[in-house]
Design goal:
4-stranded antiparallel beta sheet, 3 helices, about 5% helix, Glyco_hydro_beta-prop_sf, hydrolase activity, hydrolase, Glycoside hydrolase family 43 protein
Length: about 350
């Protein structure tokens, strides 16, 4: 009995029926530093096409446009960045075997116009002459310090086969190219990391003076590579590295396509990732990108357990912060599912 009472004194939340909500939210009447969020994504039934979902708290998401496409011309793994001109840019490609990366631009996230087509000469990549003509999941980041856009993607150097289909994925290497305007690109593609294992779905973010490369470790998990198919983070003091070896996994195995957003109060990080293929979405939370991270309970479809929720059919893409005005304009244009829950 004495031991039980001591546990209750030290850990009183163990007896609570409802566990704490994720940190980072604001109290009623307070103004959010981050007012709203857009999730640009694909769906399980319509892979590679563009759909929108919205959130005001970064935790609970509603789909737009009655679950229909929002931009018919787009194909790819959606990734959106806001440029120094306050316009939005999105990159995509029609398939991994297509030689081209297509870029569109928008003033309002509603009307998209053709901006540029970039065709990288993959064979000219230094120290990667064996690269195959494959371009996976182009991603965009704008670096204020250098006034440069960096576009990343993954390219393999081995074909898969029936005996070893995973060697194709293990051979993926992350490449990048720089640009002032996403029309003109500097030199040939280069490898982003100097370590030699498979990486895909890399997004770059900067916090204070540190650059973080958030990636999927694309080695197949084994007892001898337990970090395989997880989300990990590498760090650098400069945009182009060298980057540290990635830290311990943030996610379980068989997760990909990380999306990172700051909480409404700006003090917490929410890292989303997909359990593929289209099984569910996970959410890990930290107050620092160096960790530690914990996994929130969600996607169980039991309200007592779920601390976050997304439309069941969503597949991966990107999440960005938007203003309340942009949120309202998107709702006015497309309509939102379960809108009464947002009011």
């Amino acid at each position: 009995m004495t031991r039980f009472l001591l546990i209750l004194i030290l850990f009183p939340t163990l007896m609570c029926g409802q566990q704490p909500d994720p940190p980072g939210q604001i109290n009623t009447g307070e103004k959010a530093e981050n007012e709203a969020y857009l999730f640009a994504h694909m769906t399980h039934e319509d892979y590679g096409r563009l759909y929108y979902s919205l959130s005001k708290d970064g935790l609970h998401w509603q789909k737009l446009n009655a679950g229909k496409r929002v931009f018919e011309s787009y194909q790819g793994h959606p990734d959106i960045v806001k440029g120094p001109d306050n316009r939005y840019y999105i990159a995509g490609n029609t398939s991994d075997s297509s030689p081209d990366i297509n870029i569109w631009v928008s003033e309002d996230l509603i009307d998209w116009k053709n901006h540029a087509v970039y065709t990288p000469d993959l064979k000219s990549t230094p120290d990667y002459s064996e690269a195959l003509q494959r371009i996976g999941a182009p991603k965009l980041f704008y670096d204020e310090a250098s006034a440069k856009f960096v576009m990343t993607w993954h390219t393999p150097h081995k074909e898969g086969n029936k005996e070893d289909p995973e060697r194709y994925w293990a051979s993926q290497r992350t490449l990048y190219v720089l640009s002032d305007d996403l029309k003109n690109f500097e030199g040939p593609p280069n490898r982003l990391f100097d370590w030699d294992f498979g990486t895909i779905d890399v997004i770059i973010r900067k916090v204070k003076d540190t650059y973080y490369a958030i990636l999927k470790d694309e080695t197949y998990p084994t007892l001898y590579w337990p970090t395989g198919k997880t989300i990990r983070i590498a760090r650098s003091g400069s945009l182009l590295g060298p980057y540290s070896l990635p830290q311990d996994p943030i996610s379980p195995n068989f997760r990909e396509a990380p999306s990172l957003i700051p909480s409404p109060d700006g003090n917490i990080w929410y890292m989303y990732y997909e359990q593929y293929p289209g099984v569910s979405y996970g959410l890990s939370i930290a107050d620092n990108l160096n960790g530690p991270w914990f996994q929130a309970s969600g996607y169980t479809f039991f309200s007592d357990w779920d601390k976050y929720s997304l439309p069941a059919e969503v597949r991966h893409g990107c999440m960005i912060t938007i203003s309340k005005e942009e949120y309202d304009n998107l709702v006015a244009e497309y309509g939102i599912s379960n809108q009464e829950k947002e009011e």
